[in-house]
């Protein structure tokens, strides 16, 4: 494994027909064009990635979109940063007053 898959278990979590049926279907449906929409503009560059719009375990076509490599990397980076900040911003539990 190389690149973004290095050290990841995500590939093993995908359904067995991801590469033979699901991924090709989404890329064809979206005409191999990036579907990323930001600031009122669609990217529309050539797409070679299939991304989960919402739940990463929902592999239905309506939860999947074709993205170009750059937009997919930006989206994944944002999601990772949001997850890290959510953990940092979690307040530690208050100690019981009798234990202070």
TrEMBL record:
<dbReference type="InterPro" id="IPR002711">
    <property type="entry name" value="HNH"/>
</dbReference>
<dbReference type="Pfam" id="PF01844">
    <property type="entry name" value="HNH"/>
</dbReference>
<dbReference type="InterPro" id="IPR003615">
    <property type="entry name" value="HNH_nuc"/>
</dbReference>
<feature type="region of interest" description="Disordered">
    <location>
        <begin position="75"/>
        <end position="100"/>
    </location>
</feature>
<feature type="domain" description="HNH">
    <location>
        <begin position="33"/>
        <end position="78"/>
    </location>
</feature>
<feature type="compositionally biased region" description="Basic and acidic residues">
    <location>
        <begin position="91"/>
        <end position="100"/>
    </location>
</feature>
<protein>
    <recommendedName>
        <fullName>HNH domain-containing protein</fullName>
    </recommendedName>
</protein>
């Amino acid at each position: 494994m190389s690149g973004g898959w290095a050290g990841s278990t995500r590939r093993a979590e995908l359904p067995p027909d991801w590469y033979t049926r699901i991924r090709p279907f989404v890329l064809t449906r979206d005409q191999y064009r990036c579907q990323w929409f930001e600031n009122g503009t669609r990217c529309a560059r050539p797409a070679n990635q299939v991304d989960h719009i919402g739940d990463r375990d929902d592999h239905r076509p309506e939860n999947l979109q074709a993205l170009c490599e750059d937009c997919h990397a930006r989206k994944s980076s944002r999601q990772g940063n949001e997850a890290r900040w959510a953990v940092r911003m979690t307040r530690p539990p208050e100690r019981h007053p009798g234990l202070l």
